[in-house]
Design a protein that fits this description.
The chain has ten helices and 18 strands. It is of the alpha/beta class.
Length: 436
């Protein structure tokens, strides 16, 4: 069911604004022994760490194995925006998932913002959490119709979503670029790397054993258990949870092919003057828009603005930088491209049905991934669901259906396809603004 993956290099954090400002943390050592546990978790991002937190809280023994350091993947590099909403309207999601799992998925999204902020508050996680709402601006006239459809559908399912327009929106966003937006009150933002480190700290206090620089090389059956091997150690456990999202490798055959890793890039400004900082998103909202090649922005809790989009390279080179410059000029023309001072990117998991996926391809093997750029809230929900399954909840009683590992159509061509799609979508976004 599995085979060894190629040799891995292991890394500390990528240079990002989050790695410069996160709470202090001493990364754990690599695994160098043979352990037995109830559960092995592969990947220490939002998904894996939430699962570790829930399981260790229930005194279930957990070993977390991370190739690099906790939060190294998308979770420590993300925009940190808590956006409790799927990409489609509820009617479409119910059509896709049916009358049982459709409403459960909607409920999971609707509650995901409060779930995350409650987790932070209950455990006093030091991660600059701000729950002051999320604005999603229409980039053109025809996108207003899309926002209306989302507003009416999701408010029926209890999402605290409303419209903000004209001068009020200009004031709340600090931008005249959007005239109509939806506002989701339970949205907000966190310092994502601090959140990972804090969740790792609490999970370790509860008994979870976390190992950094320990890429899993293989997972093989051993009697009724699983044998998980790293370069210098091994774990035997009844359950193995794959929480590797955009960084999924070939350790579990077929998992990598279920998603397309998309790259998101962002940059942070120089320290803003007090006036600049006050005038942009003055009430602490986060901001994103309806573009296919999205623009997103938020402030930190000090003196900076972070601005992001989709990209082609994790290093955020060339065309990615100029996309951010163009975007900043459009959305916040009071700032200049040279005000952006540090750039980085990371991989997120995109699924064919644009919804998160839960898999149980063999007894004791689980995988949760594919948050389609809305993982700050939903990866944490998935971690909780994985822990519920391990703790005895039947698969059919979970909020997310377990599905088989189906390859993303034309997966082998995804690099070329993504490049083409970004170019093409960028053009369509520009045409929208002109003609629609
Ligand atoms: C730049 C950027 C901006 C984003 N902005 C937002 C946003 O504002 N709001 C939002 O909701 N979402 C956003 N996202 C998406 C969100 O960050 C992700 O959905 C989420 O972090 C996924 O969490 P995860 O724990 O599943 O995966 P990750 O955080 O990617 O963690 C996976 C981990 O698995 C480890 N791993 C992989 N293979 C192995 C192995 N063989 N052995 C051991 N470890 C392994 C990797 O090292 C990695 O640390 C953004 C993503 C990026 C890249």
């Amino acid at each position: 069911m599995s085979h060894s993956s190629a040799a891995h290099n292991t890394f500390s954090q990528v240079p990002s604004y989050w790695s410069q400002t996160a709470v202090d943390y001493t990364a754990p050592e690599a695994l160098t022994e043979s352990l037995k546990a109830d559960v092995t978790i592969i990947g220490a991002g939002f998904t894996g760490l939430r699962a570790a937190y829930e399981l260790s809280k229930r005194n279930i023994s957990v070993v977390v194995l991370e190739s690099n350091e906790p939060g190294w993947g998308a979770s420590g590099r993300t925009g940190g925006q808590v956006n409790p909403l799927a990409h489609a309207a509820p009617s479409k999601i119910i059509e896709q998932l049916g009358e049982v799992y459709g409403p459960r998925m909607l409920e999971s999204y609707v509650n995901s913002g409060n779930e995350l902020f409650n987790l932070i508050a209950d455990n006093q996680l030091d991660c600059d959490a701000v729950q002051n709402g999320w604005l999603r601006g229409a980039h053109c006239q025809s996108a207003i119709k899309q926002l209306q459809e989302m507003h009416s559908g999701w408010s029926e399912y209890g999402l605290d979503i409303s419209f903000v327009e004209g001068k009020e929106l200009h004031q709340l966003s600090g931008s005249t670029h959007y005239d109509v937006a939806t506002q989701v009150a339970s949205g907000g933002c966190i310092q994502p790397l601090s959140f990972c480190r804090e969740l790792a700290r609490v999970s370790a206090q509860q008994g979870a054993q976390i190992f950094a620089h320990s890429p899993v090389q293989s997972v093989k059956p051993e009697g009724s258990d699983w044998h998980v091997k790293t370069a210098n150690g091994q774990v035997t456990s009844q359950w193995v949870l794959f929480c590797t999202n955009g960084y999924t490798d070939n350790t579990l055959q077929g998992l990598k092919q279920t998603i397309v890793p998309l790259i998101s890039v962002q940059a942070v400004t120089r320290p803003l003057s007090a006036d600049e900082y006050r005038s942009i998103l003055p009430s602490g909202h986060t901001l994103s828009d309806t573009r296919r090649v999205i623009y997103y922005a938020r402030k930190d809790n000090r003196d900076r603005l972070l601005f992001g989009s989709l990209g082609m390279s994790e290093a955020c080179n060339g065309a990615d930088k100029s996309r951010l410059h163009q975007g900043l000029k459009k959305v916040f023309p009071q700032l200049k491209p040279e005000d952006l001072s540090l750039y980085w990117g990371g991989k997120l998991g995109f699924t064919a049905d644009v919804l998160p996926h839960l898999h149980e391809p063999a007894p004791g093997i689980l995988a949760g991934l594919g948050y389609n750029g809305r993982g700050v809230a939903m990866a944490s929900v998935m971690g909780r669901i994985l822990a519920q399954r391990v703790s005895g909840t039947k698969a059919e009683d979970l909020a997310i259906a377990t599905t088989r590992l189906s390859p993303f159509p034309f997966h082998a061509l995804h690099k070329v396809g993504t490049y083409g799609a970004i170019k093409c979508y960028e053009m369509r976004d520009a045409l929208d603004v002109k003609f629609f």
